[in-house]
Design brief:
20 strands, alpha+beta, 7 helices, five-stranded parallel β-sheet, six-stranded antiparallel β-barrel
Length: 389
């Protein structure tokens, strides 16, 4: 009997995943990751989540363990999260959590359990094999949806819940060890199975917030550790129209609503189109000015290596965005990405994720540079310098 380490978060998705694996004949061991412990100002409800996960394990009759990875989580996720914003970029902590915690630190921490596989409640699909099969909505084996060993990841049946965007950074070597039990199910089907198996989490709402941190006010969370100072907000033609609290706290495409900045005049809705970290300036314009079609990506991780130095694929730059056709070209150690049509709010620090036409996750990288935004910053600086003369 194959042994599976099931990551149980206390939510309905991982709960149903554990039930499906046990029903399929695996020896399932439940693991709760203790990531962030919270602070007095920003508490984390991990005790409640762990309790829920433990109750599910008891109902299913599977062993349950809590693994304390708070130190590595602080170093690899929280500290990088703050460092990214301090550097003026917008990082994605969920990508870091999957890469550094779930599929690396956790796997190393449980070596003594000698598990054959590691499973999560992600909505993603493994490549079809003849080893074993996923279960259909009624909990029966479905020969059309194989599960287990695979070196490839595909989009799931539920396109609305597709979480492959957050999986691009995991190491390719661990792919054959990963199981995604929910790849062939929709969220409503998962809810029905939770009730069928009488799981305590059947009616629990989906979690919100940063991975293993939970719900919190991100802006206040950032302000607790990111050093900022007030600065000026400019239109692209050089007119100063407002003041801001610190350029690090804002992101490309963000609408400057009432209360987000200190306005000096009556202006229409405006959006951040560029950030000048050096001079602590925000540059704003219309929503249409947030669109661009080219970026430079670095820190690439390929789950399927490109066969040439230039290729076409589908890509997205944020979770739940529609896939867009791109052309990728090798650019030294980086890649130059051209979209077939302009995309809103290309944001440095965020992930760009690549897919094959049939939904295979090819890999991804970090948006390092958006040339048009750099040019906008330079033009404003030149305009302001000329006004001083």
């Amino acid at each position: 009997m194959k042994r599976v380490a099931m990551l149980m978060s206390g939510g309905v998705d991982s709960s149903v995943s554990a039930a499906l694996l046990k029903n399929q004949g695996y020896e399932v061991l439940g693991f709760y990751i203790l990531g962030w412990l919270g602070t007095p100002d920003f508490p984390c409800p991990w005790q409640k989540e762990e309790k829920d996960a433990r109750e599910v394990a008891n109902v299913l009759g599977i062993p349950f363990h809590t693994i304390n990875l708070s130190k590595v989580y602080e170093e690899e996720v929280i500290n990088r999260f703050f460092a990214g914003y301090q550097a003026g970029v917008t990082p994605n902590p969920d990508v870091l959590c999957n890469r550094e915690i779930k599929f690396k630190a956790l796997w190393k921490a449980i070596r003594q359990f000698e598990c054959d596989y590691i499973a999560t409640g992600h909505y993603a699909r493994c490549q079809q094999t003849a080893i074993s099969h996923q279960l259909s909505a009624n909990g029966e084996a479905d020969s059309r949806q194989p599960l287990a060993e695979s070196s490839r990841i595909f989009k799931p049946k539920d396109s609305v819940k597709d979480q492959t965007y957050f999986l691009w950074g995991i190491e390719k070597s661990i792919l054959p060890k990963i199981i995604f039990p929910l790849g062939g199910l929709t969220k409503p089907e998962v809810r029905k199975l939770a009730k069928k198996y009488h799981l305590p989490t059947a009616t629990k709402k989906d979690s919100q917030g940063i991975c293993f941190v939970g719900p919190l006010k991100v802006r206040q969370f950032l302000a607790s550790r990111v050093k900022t100072k007030p600065g000026d907000v400019y239109l692209i033609d050089g007119r100063k129209i407002a003041s801001h609290e610190g350029v690090e706290l804002y992101t490309i495409g963000q609408r400057l609503a009432a209360g987000s900045v200190d306005w000096t005049g009556d202006v229409p809705p405006l959006f951040i189109i560029a950030k000048d970290l050096k001079n602590n300036r925000l540059i704003v314009g219309t929503d249409s000015q947030t669109f661009d079609s080219m970026l430079i990506a670095s820190s690439l991780n390929w789950l399927e290596e490109p066969k040439s130095q230039t290729f076409e694929a589908l890509a997205k730059i944020r979770y739940r965005q529609i896939d867009e056709v791109i052309t990728a070209s090798k650019f030294g150690s980086k890649w130059k990405i051209n979209f077939s049509k302009p995309v809103r709010a290309l944001t440095t620090g965020q992930s760009i994720v690549f897919y094959a036409p049939k939904g295979q996750l090819l890999g991804g990288g970090i948006i390092e540079l958006v040339p048009q935004q750099d040019e906008t910053v330079k033009r404003l600086a030149k305009t302001l310098d000329s006004a001083k003369v």
